[in-house]
Amino acid sequence: MSDARAILRISVLGSIQVHRGPVPIDPGPGKQRAVLAVLALHVGHAVSIDALLGAVWDGTQPASARQLVHTYVARLRRLLEPDLPPRGRTNIISSGPGGYRLLTGRELVDVTRFELLYRRAQQFSSADEPQRTFELLGEAMRLWRDPELTELSALLHASDTLDLLRRTWSEAALDYVRAGLDVRQAPAVLPVARRLAATEPMNETAQALYMVALEQTGRRAAAVRHFDDIRVMLKAELGVGPGSQLSDAYRAVLAGDEPAAGPAGAVSAPAEQIRPPWRGRGPGLGQLIYRERDLDAVMCLLAGQRLLTVTGPPGCGKSALALHAAACLRDNLPGGVVVLDCADLGPTARLDRRLSMLLGAEPATGAPSRLIGEQQMLIVFDDAELVMDGCAEVVDDVVRACPNVSVVVTSREPLGVPYETVWRLRPLRLSRDDEACWEAEPPAVQLFARRAAQVRPGLRLGADEVRTVETLCEQLDHLPLAVELAAECLATDTLDELSRRLDDPLRELRPPRRGQPLHHRSLQAALLRSLGCLDQQERWCLRRLGELPLRFRAEQAEALWRSSPHGPVDGRLMLRRLADKSLLFVHHDLAGPVYGKLRLVHRVAVGLGTAEHRFGEHAVAVR
C-alpha cells in the first residue's frame, strides 16, 4: 500500500507538474523540468544522454551539459523517492547503457494515460456505445490543461514530438465534440468546440461542429455570425467559399426549429477549461478558521497515503476540513471528487450501491471499483461513524483495486484497517505555541463573531462583550458546532440571555437550522449520535466516568469499573476504546497518561441515565 509508484503522477500536458497523491511537488528549475518532461514523453523507454542533450539544449550546449543532466536526474530522484538512500533511488528513474528510463506506470503519466483513454474510447465507439465513448473522451480531454503546450514549447527543442501531440489533441477534440453532440451534451463540449475552432481555422469539420454546438445550446445567432466570419476568412485567405460540410451545417442552423438544449436544466459550460467533476454534497461555504495547520497536514498526508481518516469529537469540524481539502485538491484530479454523505444512513445501508449511484451507474449494480477503474479521484466518506463495517468493506475494495484513488473518511473513530492513517482534529483552542504570538481574538471568538454577524448584520462586539464570548466559548469547549449554534441564537437573544442558556446547552442551544444533518441542529443530537456508537458496556462505563473530574488517571476509572452489570471490564482497553471514539482524550506527563473529557461530554456522562430515559427512543434510532 505504500509503494510510491502507485501514487506518483507526472503531468506535462500543460505546466509540468508532479503530484504524490493529489498534492503537488515542485519539480525544480527549468532545465530540470525539461529533463523530467523528456523522460515522461517516453515513459517506459530508455532515453539516451545525447537525446536528452538535444531536446534540452539543441545546438547550444554548454561544456558541462552532460554532467548537468546527471545532476538533474539525481535531484529528480531525490524529489521522487525522498525516503530512500541516494544509491537506492532508482525505482522511478533507472539508468543503464541506453540512458535514463522513467519506470512509473503508464497510467500515471498524463500523456500515456490520455493515449490509453483515447484508445478505449475508440473501441467503445466501434462497438456503438456513444455514452461510454463520450465519458472516456471527456476524461481524456480533461488531462489537457494547455493544448498549446506552452511550457513544453519553451523548454524543449523537440518540435516534431510537440506537433504530433497537438495534432493528437485536435483529433481527440473532434471525436469528443462529435460524441457530445450525439448524446445531446452540447453544453459540456462547447468550450472544447470553441477552442478547436480557434486553433483549427481551416478545418471545415471543426467549424461545422462548433456551429452545431452553438445552435444546440440556444445560440443560433452566434452560429450564423460564426459562419459569416469563416466565409469572409476563407475568401480573404484562400479565395474560396465554404465547403459542403460547413454549408450544410449553416443551412441546418437556419432551418432548425427550437434548438435542442440537452438534458432538462442543462446550462452552458463556461468558456474556460472544464473542471473535474464534483459528485455528491458540495464543498463547504466560508473560510476555515485556525485550521491552516490541519489543512496542510491533511494535504501532505494524502501525498503519501491512500486512506486518511479524520477523527475528532462531535462538532469539531471534521466534515468542513475534509470538504475544504477536497475542494483545494479537485483541480489536480482528472476524475474529480466524490462525496458520499453517510450522516443519515443506518448500519445496514448498502454503501457500495450508493457510491455506484454517485459514480453514475444506473441501476447501481456492480462493485464501485469496477466503475472507477484507473481514474484519478478523491472519494470522501463523510460522517461514517454509524456505518463503520460497511464503510471499511467498500473502502478496502476501492483502495486495493483502484491504484489512483485516494480516500478520506470523516468519523468519530478510525476504520481500523491496517493501512489507515488517522488525523485527530481538536477543538479551536489555541495551542501553547500559538498563545504567545496570537494577536487577534481567539479562533473560537472569531468564529462566533462571524456567524453572529450573519444572523444579525451589523453586529459588533465591544471589548467587554468579547470577554463574555471568550468565557462562553470556553464553556462550549471551543467546539465549532457549539460556537456556531450559540452565535445563531443571537438572532433573537441578547448576549446575556445567551449566557443563561449555557446552564443547559445540550437542550437550550437549538436555533432553527435547515439544510443541515440532524446531528448538526443541536448539541443534544450531536452527543446522542456519539452514544449511538457505543455498546451497553461502553455506555455504562461512560456514565460512571461522570463521577470523576474533567481530568483523571486510569487508576481512578478502573476503580469505578470493578464490577459491571454487563460483565468484566478491561479498564485500559475500555479507556482506549472511548478515546478512539473521541469521547476521551489523552496526554502524557511524567506520571503517565492523563485522560480528559470535554465539558459537554462530561454533561452527557453525568446525566446519561436521565438522558437515556428521556431520549431513549431517539438514541435507539440513532444507533
From TrEMBL:
DNA-binding interval(s): 1-104
One protein family per Pfam: Trans_reg_C
Superkingdom field: Bacteria
Domain OmpR/PhoB-type: 1-104
Keyword set includes NAD: no
Keyword terms: DNA-binding
PANTHER family per record: HTH-TYPE TRANSCRIPTIONAL REGULATOR RV0890C-RELATED, REGULATOR-RELATED
Similarity comment: Belongs to the AfsR/DnrI/RedD regulatory family.
Protein name, as recorded: OmpR/PhoB-type domain-containing protein
Species this protein is from: Paractinoplanes deccanensis
